[in-house]
Write a structure and sequence with these properties.
It is a single chain. With about 220 residues, the chain is of the alpha/beta class. Helices cover about 30% and strands about 25% of the residues. It has an eight-stranded mixed β-sheet with strand order 1-2-4-3-5-6-7-8, with helices on both faces. The longest helix has 18 residues.
Amino acid sequence: MGSETIESKFIATPEKGEVSSILMRPDNAKWLLVLGHGAGTNMRHSTLQTIAERLADIGIATFRYQFPYMERGGGGRESEAVALQTVRSAAAAAYEAASDLGILVGGHSYSGRMSSMSAAKEPIERVIGLVFFAFPLHPAGREGTERAEHLGDVTVPMLFLSGTRDKLAVLDLLEPVCEKLDKATLHLLDTADHGFKVLKRRKTEEDVFVEMARIISEWTGSLG
C-alpha cells in the first residue's frame, strides 16, 4: 500500500501564529484522524509516529500537529483557550488538506483531553468522532473524575483506548465514567501503561499499536 507524507504549517490562533503539521495519507484512506501529542512530547515523538504508521497500514490517514508551546520548543503551556482553539484550527487545516475524508479528532493524553473539551464547548465543524489514546482522567496519584465532567456535553461518538496499567486513568474510575456516556466506547489494552508499554504477561501476542489501529478501524465502521 502506497502513502504520501506532507509537512506544512497552519495558523493555530491569531496571537500564537503558525504551528507545524504532518499529513500521512495512505492511498486507500477513507478517514483522517487529527492527532495531537502529549503534554511533554511533540508530533514527532515515537508514540505518535508509531500510531500514525500503524493506522496508515490499515488505510487510515493522520494529521499530526503541534501545540504552540511545543512549536516554540516546550516550556510552559499556553492558556486553555489557546489549546482549545488550536484543536479547532488543526481540524480545519486537516479538512483543507483532505476534504474528501471523514474527519476524526483526538490524540495522546493531553491533546485528547483538549480535543474533548473543545468539542464539549462547541461541536467542531465536520468532525464525526473523537479518539482518545490514554485519556488522562486524573493526575497520577490524585484519583478523581473532575476531568470527565464535560464529556456528557460531547455530541459525537468517542473511543477511549486505555491501558489496564494506566496510572492516569484507573479502571475503577474510568469504566463507570464511560458507562454513563451514551456515545462512549471503551477498549482496554491489556497490561499497557500510559505510554503503551506492555508486560510480557500480556494476554495477546498482538502488538499494542496494531491492536489500537484495528480497534479504531472497527469502530469507524459504526460511524457510517
